[in-house]
Amino acid sequence: MNPYVIQMDRFAQSLKHLSETFLSLEEYKGAFTKDEVEEMFLRVSESVCEGCEKKEWCLKENRSGTRQMVYEILCTVEDYGAELNIEVKRKLQKRCVRAPRFLRETLEVFGDAKQKLLWNNRIVQNREGCAVQLTEFARIIQHATRELDAGIFSDEHLEKRIRARMKHIGVKLLSSVFFMTEQGRYEIHLTVKAVKGQCVTSKEVAEALCAAVNRKMLLKPGERQNVGGEYCVLVCIEGPAFYTMQGVAKIGKGCEKISGDTFSMTKLPGVKEAVVLSDGMGSGEEAFKESARVVEMLEELLEAGFPVETAIQMMNTALVIGREEVRFSTVDMCVFDLYEGSCELVKAGASATFIRYADHVEKIVSSTLPIGVVQNIEIDRMKRELSDGDFVIMMTDGVLDALPVGEQEALMSMFIGGTGMNNPKELAHHILEQVLEWTGEEPLDDMTVIAVGIWSV
């Protein structure tokens, strides 16, 4: 096995062992143990009963009865809060000459213990979240390393052809690295420089590479524009068979300028494109900040090459363990594979998505929770094959909720299927206008519609 793969496996195993260590520590506790209740009883009795004329009888002769009284108080507080029922108060007053102080001290001790229990459980929850992420990191490292090792290949004949083509346009080739993706597509890294006195555009290099390998090769986004007299590395990838165009229409609650919905359209590794739509809790500026944080972080993780589900789970963990109050955001994502002409829909608490094919409209729904609510989140994933001219329409729940209950999805399918518009922006605006016209009133929630069309190159 490749020594680099072995080394990365060691890193991954270390992360897995660290994760197992986290999980082997103190577990989540839903209630107090017998010893903890006894400790609370001792604290209360030491504080209240000192100097009391009935101390000997309460704490020795009738100790079990006194302990049972404390236990009843704690159970009542756990169920109903500090407002005890009359029966429990009457029992305490009959048994204890210092009943008000005894009750006050018991409630205070219980409050301290309850707070400690909550914090300990919070620590356990955070530790479990970290353990899950460490395990996922280990899996990603192993998968990426093996994928890279399996994809790299050498081809002396192909390299000679590339070198000859580069020489023809005035470029010197120092080395080349060939990589084949899981889909059988080429990615080629060229270390090149222009011969003395010349300046060659990177586009010319890519065109020469196309001629050499007899495949449609494109510069990877972000590559330099020109090749000069110093060696540099250019990365070229095999061109896609499809391309997409997007259009957006949105309006804030009550026609406000600030909407709590946020969206992003970004290019991903492997000639993929992702559309992310998030609806923050509530509306207005606070909801916008929440959804924008989610979208920006997801965008960064996806561009770095993290798997979709891992990126969402990491974002969810950050939201759950990062603060006291619950503030959730929906995640609606569509990842387009421009090689295959397919899309993967990923939903966490998101509204329905509609796909307009040539002859019908399909609705795709999900019943999952938004991110930021619970530690272990469920994510719905669905893949669909697309053809030239198909449209994927995503929207936030404010759009569908504006339509009559029970007719929402049928009406939306009618709005989408009843028009032959092929301009994404016009289609998105048409759908939003149809909804607003149907309701005949100002939006009661933020509304966003995204229309994405896909076509053959």
Helix content: 40-55%
CATH class term of the largest domain: Alpha Beta
Question: What is the β-strand count?
Answer: 17
- N-to-C span: 40 Å
Strand order of the largest sheet: 1-2-3-7-5
Strand content is 15-25%
Identify the CATH architecture of the largest domain.
Answer: 4-Layer Sandwich
Mean pLDDT: 82
The CATH superfamily of the largest domain is identified as PPM-type phosphatase domain
Count of helices? 13
Order of helices and strands: HHHHHHEHEEEHEEEEEEHHEEEEEEHHHE
Low-confidence parts lasting 5 or more residues at pLDDT below 50?
none
> CATH fold name of the largest domain, please?
Phosphatase 2c, domain 1
Biggest sheet descriptor: 5 strands, antiparallel
Cα Rg: 32 Å
Shape: flat
Structural class: alpha+beta
How many domain regions? 3
Organism: Dorea acetigenes
Pfam families: SpoIIE, SpoIIE_N
Protein name: SpoIIE family protein phosphatase
Keywords: Hydrolase
Question: What can you see in these coordinates?
Answer:
It holds the Pfam family SpoIIE_N. It comes from Dorea acetigenes. Keywords: Hydrolase. Residues 246-454 form the PPM-type phosphatase domain. There is one protein chain. Helices cover 47% and strands 23% of the residues. By secondary structure, the chain is α+β, with helices and mostly antiparallel strands. The protein folds into three domains: 1-150; 154-238, Threonyl-tRNA Synthetase, Chain A, domain 2 (2-Layer Sandwich); 242-456, 4-Layer Sandwich (Phosphatase 2c, domain 1), CATH 3.60.40.10. The strands form four sheets. Strands 1-2-3-7-5 form a five-stranded antiparallel sheet. A five-stranded antiparallel sheet has the order 8-17-16-13-14. A hairpin with a 4-residue loop joins strand 13 and strand 14 (361-364). Helix 2 packs antiparallel against helix 6 (99-151). The longest helix is centred in the first third of the chain and has 53 residues, at 99-151. The chain starts with a helix and ends with a strand.
